Each structure stands twice: as structure tokens, then as C-alpha cells.
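Honest question from a wet-lab person: if I give you the sequences of every part of a complex, can you actually get the arrangement of the whole thing, not just the pieces? Trying it with mine:
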Amino acid sequence: MQISGQAAKYWLYSTNHKDVGVLYTVTSLLFFLIGGVLALSMRAQLANPTPGILPTSTYNEFVTMHGLLMILWVLSPLAIGLANYFIPLQLGARDLAFPRLNALSYWLYLFGGVGMVLTFFVGGGPNTGWTLYNPQTACSDPLCAGAGLNVATGALVLLVASITLGSVNFIVTMFKMRAPGLKFSHFSMFPWAMLVTVVMMLYAFPSFLAGLVLLFSDRTFPARLSYLSSSQSGNIPSLLWDDVFWFFGHPEVYIVLFPAIGVIGEILPTFTRRPLYGAKYVAWSMIAAAVLSFIVWGHHMFITGVSPLSTQLFTITTIGVSLPFDVITISMIETLYKAKIRMKAPVLFAIGAVALFVIGGITGVFLASIALDHQLRGTYFVVAHFHYIMVGAGILALMGGLYYWFPKMTGRMYNERIAKLHFALSFIGFNVLYFPMFFLLEMPRRIASYTINTGWLPLNQMATIGGFIFGLAQLLLFANLGRSLRNGTPAGPNPWEGWTFEWSTSSPPPPENFGTIPQVASDGTVDFGSGHRGSLATGLPNGHGAHPSHLSRWPIIMALGAFLFLLGLTVSNPPPNYFLLVPGVVVGMWGLTGYGREAFVVPEGEKTADWPFAGIPRARLGVWVFLASEIIFFGVLLGAYAFVRTNAATWPAINSLFEISHGATNTFILLASSLTAVLALACARQGSKSGLVASLVGTFALGTLFLYNKAMEWQQLASAPVSIFANFPLPATTYYITTGVHGVHVFAGLLMIGYLIPNALKGKYFGHGEETIHHFGLYWHFVDIVWIFLFPLFYLI
Amino acid sequence: MAYLIVRFRGRDGFPEPADAPTLGHIPPARGHLKTVAISVTLSAIVLGVLIFGTLNATEVITTVPSECRPLQSSPYGSAHCAYIQVTAFRFGWNFTYLNTILEGQTLTGNLTIPFATNVILQIRSMDTGGRQGVFHAFGVDDFKIKKDAIPGLTNTLWFRATDLDPHTIRCFEFCGIGHSGMTGKVNVVQPGSLGCSSTGC
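Yes, you can. This is the full assembly:
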């Protein structure tokens, strides 16, 4: 297929949610291929372990990369791709709330993935297991993780940024952009599942980000700022990373699972011709499971030596979290009762996923028991269990979703017979692959070789055969969808007779999705308007040509800048690499400025439902949601400080190391700057240009003074007769990292003011423009509030 | 589930369910709180039993037998219990005998223990040559025991050999390039050998 320059430019610049959805979906499938090849290489190795085809070092890189790619770059993004395409359609919206931010999320995700794969070529892929356990990842001797892990850290930061922005976008969209009359109780299961998923993402990923910050500083400044490997200096248990990681890691399991449940909840009603049984309770169950998922992380640490009391509590919460899933599965099975099941490929995948989920779920309850965990932990039983969840339920259901929505996305039907063959081979291959692993109770995970007298060979060989059946079956998916893109029979708007809104418009939908926005009456009838079934659509991408407002070049430029910056920060040893860092800053700032200055028209649509945030503008809600994730980020950093502080044998007395006067001065300065920020907003509201500029300049000056004072204090502590790093390594680490991260936030605020002042001089921020000052104010106050916590924690107690 | 799929597979001439979802209408709610409540209650009872059982079993697995608990007069308990310090390193195990057989000695690789005696392992992680230790997990499947070796912590594990067969030690936490080969043997010996008398060590 020849791609013309114009089409390439279109795909690089498009911000339309459907285009971004296609990009996400296709990219995640490509990463799926990479992750799959890694998996098959490992299976080939384990079927013939001595001597095998992979050196152990390569195997270790593959096992790590396979996990990271499949979980973070395949499962979630595939779901996000479908959500990008269908959430606005299902809500009756014309696009997501922030289309350019959405494109930015995609490009950050893509560049993150590129960086991740790049690690193979710059210092070796991460070789520590996807959990990146410290001290393995933080220590610096040759047996520990290689230099590639630094780049991987940068790539993961890009991914976290992508996910956080995406979550903000989806949350605001779901709360503010529903079709008139559409209530949450009207939602089908996919929007429900995605709503719960993105809220979990918003709260889970900042913990990971905080962990990555600690990891990066450990690896970059091992002698000075070593948080995670601090056991060397202070005899502190190396469990900080475990806590931080699994606080993110367990919700992450549900983050990849819930979209699959949502997809099953779409497919079942359509193909069984009955509404989902107990849909309301399924939604409530997901919410309950999401809440519980944040208090079960300790079950990943049952045998690490944490206190018996905490293992008991985590056992109870973990077993308890299976209750909501019980409701979900029973509802799904009960939906089949008195149904008329149309045996098409999507429903086969959906039912198959439910069956495998039951197996995966029950074996999960086994693992929740500490007693059984003592035997099963770290064995192939665990590998089998989570692959039943992640591949069996997750991937199979999402593939069902791909088939289900393929006609809508392309306007053409896939080949049903090949799709069914794909299902049959996948299902059989899957079980031949993973079921034997339940019986490899003694085989440790992540070993590259074993001796024949262990007796593990036959089961491993069986699994390998299953692996290749499963792997090769996926080629059918690519072949089927690829061919049908051109040769499939035209699908028409509603080939499956579904009830959700996406089926009311043409296939593929026009750029604005609907001729007129659907209206939901109180009795549940939906008015799609008349005669406007998206006659605008003339196929991709030409159909969009008439809508230049969908195109923006700044998202990809910003993402590229961030990528180069982080690569520059991580690729060289010792860092940084200025040949990448400087262009990264330049490109990033260029993108940021262009993004800010671009007059981008967001499709507003008609009046939409926005309970419970009526009256709050969309962008302000976005800022609020973003700050909610920042709370977790700083919360985890402070938690890390508390962990070190409570485990440390000694700590310098109050006012001996960190002088109260220093901290108090800075507290006053920052509080004063909050006052000037309030003044700025008041002046903007009253239309006083000079007042606005003066308040902004005042805020800027106070912020700068704060940073100057901070820098003085850093300097003084580091260069005192006896450096803090030599005498008080743990206080030094916690203090420099926490206040450093806060300082970066202050600096970012100063950059914002630097952007606001020239525009204020031009008189931009009056009338509607005052919202921008409001957003800045929210951010600035938040940063000040963080300091209100830091001051007593470091200086007064 | 299989029954439902076969029973309600779509057949020609079989009528559509009355509440089949249609475009243009939000489907009515289906399902009863009662059904959900019953299923949750039943599951909760099963899971409650499981929680109770696992907490009790955990108590037995993790608590050192009373006769071996440290006393003021003797740090290794009143009875003949073998206290052995296990130090995991990349990539192997050091076994330091704190009392009884081989007292004061350190073996590398394989663990020798007396038959039918309570063995208390104190597991740590520390690398040789001043390098930092990493995570390992000491596990012997035949005894159904497993515990992590974490730098900065000492974790306790106890077991008792009831036969004289050799058993395999494996590392169950990924620890780097030598993880696959980090295995060893537990050799069970009669208390009479290795300087122990037939009544104890």
C-alpha cells in the first residue's frame, strides 16, 4: 500500500478520537507481535532447556521485556484504543473532551514503546523481571541490572505521562460530554468499565511514577541519593520498592482486566439478544473491586517477612476481593439463560473469556491463602494463574471486541469462518499452553534452564506446542482483518443489531460522529434525529480533509521533545547526554508553545449532560482531576520518607540539620505567592490589566525567591564542613528527593507564569480568558499546599 | 455454562426474547437484587471458611514450635532444635550452624540436617565482597516451605525431616543471571553421625 505524503501527515497530526483509536489499536497489536515473539522464543528455550537456543542473559531480558510490553504496551493500550474509538460514540459525543491531549497521550505511548524496545540496543534490555525488584535494579555492581534499565525508566515515565493525561481526558469526557438525557444508569458495560479503569489508572500510576523517580535517582546518584538500596547504609529492609510497586501493580491487574469485562458486557447482550443480567450490580461490583484493589497489594509480599498481622489482613482483603468478581461472572453466565445466542466470532471470544476467567479466578483464590502461597509462590502455578486472567480473559475478550467493532471501524465485515477458526485455535492453543503449567508446582518462574531429572520436560514441551498453536493462530487475526479491510462485504450501520449509540451512525462514522447529537428521553427512548445518519462519511482519510480543525502538529512535536529529553537524561553513563537533552528541551518547548498558541477549536456539540459537575468548565475539571493524581504522587513520596524514617536507627535532632528558620522563611514566601496568585485571578475578573500583570510578576518573583532560598540551603547542606551526604545519607536522600521534586513543580509553575505574563500584557485573560488564570492558580495553590506538608515533616518533627 | 450455551443457541424459528435490545431504546434493567444477594452470601460463607482455615494453617506453618522458642537461659530453645543461619548470595546459599551438629561451621551449597529434628532456619541475603544482596527465596518443595531472603531482614522458617532422602533446594525469586542454577541439596543424616549421639546433638 502506498502512503502518500498527505495521508502520512494526516495520521501524524490527526486528533480525531477515531483516528487516535485506530493508531492505538494498530500500535498495540504491533507490540503484541513483538511480545509474542519474545514469548515463543522463551517457550522454545524451555522445551529444550539444555543447551537451548537462548543464552541465560538473553532469556532474562526477554522474560522482563515480555512482561513489561504485554502488560503496559499491549493490554491497556488495546483497550484504550477501543475506548478512544467507542467511548465518545457510545456517549453520543463528537470527540473526547481534549482531542489534542488525546493525540499527545498516543504519541507519548508510542515513543515510550520505542524507547523500551531501544533498550535492547543501548546497554541491553531490562533483565530483572517486570516487577523491577530493587535492590536488583538499584545496585550498581556488574551482576545487577544493566544500563538499558535507565532508558527503560525513561520509557516508563513517558508511558505514565501518557496514561495520566489519558485518564484525565476520559474522566472529563464521561462526566461532561454525555448526550442530553444520558445518565450513568443508562451506560452499557464498556463505558462503565472504562470509567472505573481510568479512575484506577489515575490513582495507581502516580505510585509507579514515584517509584520510577526513586529508581532513577538510585541508579544515577548511587553514592548520594540512594533511596531503595538504602539497606546498605541503614540496615533498612529493602521492601520500599515492593510496597510502592505493588500499590500500583495490583490495581494494574484490574486495569487490564476491566476493559475486557466491559467488552464482554457489550458483546453478550448483542449476541444473546437479552440485556446483561444485573448490569447495575456488575457496575457496582467493578467499583467495589476497584476500591478493594488498593488494599490488597500485600498479598504479593506474603513470604517477604512482613509482619504476620499484615499478611492476615491482606489475606482477608484479597479473598474478599473475589466477591465482586463472583457477581460479575454469575451475571454474565445468567445472561445466557433464555437467550437466543447468535454464534458469531465475538460471542465465542466473549464466552471463552468468561470460562477462562473462572479458572483464573479460582486459582487466584488459592494464591490468596498464605498457607498455600508458601508452596505455590514463585512457581509456574502463578504463571498459569495470571495468564488465564491476562490472556484468557483479557486478550481473548479484547479480540472479541476487535471483531465486534471491526465492521463499525472499517465499514466492512471480517471473514466469519476464519474468525471462528482463529477462536478455536486460540482457545485450544491457550489451554494446551497454560493448563500444564498448573502442574509444574515445583518449577520456579523465570528460570532459563533446568535439568532433565526434574521431570518437567514433558509438560514444558506440551506448553510449547500450545504456545506455537496460539501464536500462529494470531496470524489468522492479522490476515483476516488485513484482507477484509479491502475485500470484506459492506457492513452497513448496524450489522449486529446492537442498541448502543455507535450503531446508529454510519460505518465508519463521519468525523463528527453524528448528524445530530442523540437525545435520551426519560423513558429510555433515544432520538437519533432524522436523515442524518452520517452521510458526510466518504471513507478514511479523505473524509476528514474538509475538517482541518482535527489536525494539530503540536502533540507529536511535544511527545518527541519529551522522548529526546528523557533519552538524553538516561542513555549515557554518566548522564546526561547533551546531544539529546538540549534538542529535547528545544523541541519540547517549541511544541509546548505552539500547542498553547494554536487556536484549536474543540467540537463542542450541543447541550450535553454533565451531572454531577454542572457549572464547572471542562478544562477546570481536567485540572482538578490531574491534581488528584498529583496527590497520590506526593503521597507516595511522603510514604517513602515515612518508611525510611520509621525504619532508620537514628535521625538527626530537630533544628540540627534542617534549620527551622530556613524552612519557615520559605513557607512565608510560598504562602505569600499564593496570595498574589489569588490577586491575579481577582484582577483578571475585574478586568484590571496592570493589576493582573503586577500580581503575576509578584508571584513569579516570590516563586523565584523560594527556589533561590532552596538552592542556597541545598548548597549549604552539601558543602558544610562535613557534607550531609557523608554523615546523614538517609536524611539527605529523603530531603533532596522530596524537596527536589517539589522544586521541579515550583519551576514548572514559574514556566507557566512566564507564558502567562506576555499574554496578559496583550490583554488576553479577560472575560472567558480568566479561566486560564484560574487553572494556573489551582496548580500553584496545590504546589503550595504540598509545601505545607513538607515543612513540618522535614523541619519540625 | 455449557448447558446454557447449547440449550439457548440460536436456532431458526426460535423466537427472539421479548426484551431483546434494540437500537433507539435503552434496555430495561434485568436481574434481581435477591439473586445477587444470595450468590454473594453463599460465596461469602465459602470464602469465610477458607479465610478461617488459611489463617489457622498459617499459624501452624509460620510459628516456631514452642520447645524451640528462645529462652533467657538458652537462645535456641529448651529442646534439641537445630538453628541454622541461611545466607543467600549470588548465586548460592551459605549455611552457618548456630548450635547442635556442626556448631560454628559454615557449609556452602548443600544443607545437612539431623533426621526427625526441628530445624529453624534464619534466612538473610548478603553478598560476598561487600556487594549488596538482592532478593532470593529459599524453598524446599518436599517440605512445602518457602521464604524470601531480603536484604536488611532476617526471616524465620522451620521444618522437620521425616525421611532420610535427599531433597532439592531451589531459589524461587528471580535474582539474576545465575537464578536457574541456584539449587542445592538437603541431606538428612542420622543424629548419630556428624558428632551427634543417638539421643540428640
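Two things worth pointing out. Chain A touches chain B through 95 residues (CB under 8 Å). The two ends of chain A are 66 Å apart (CA to CA).
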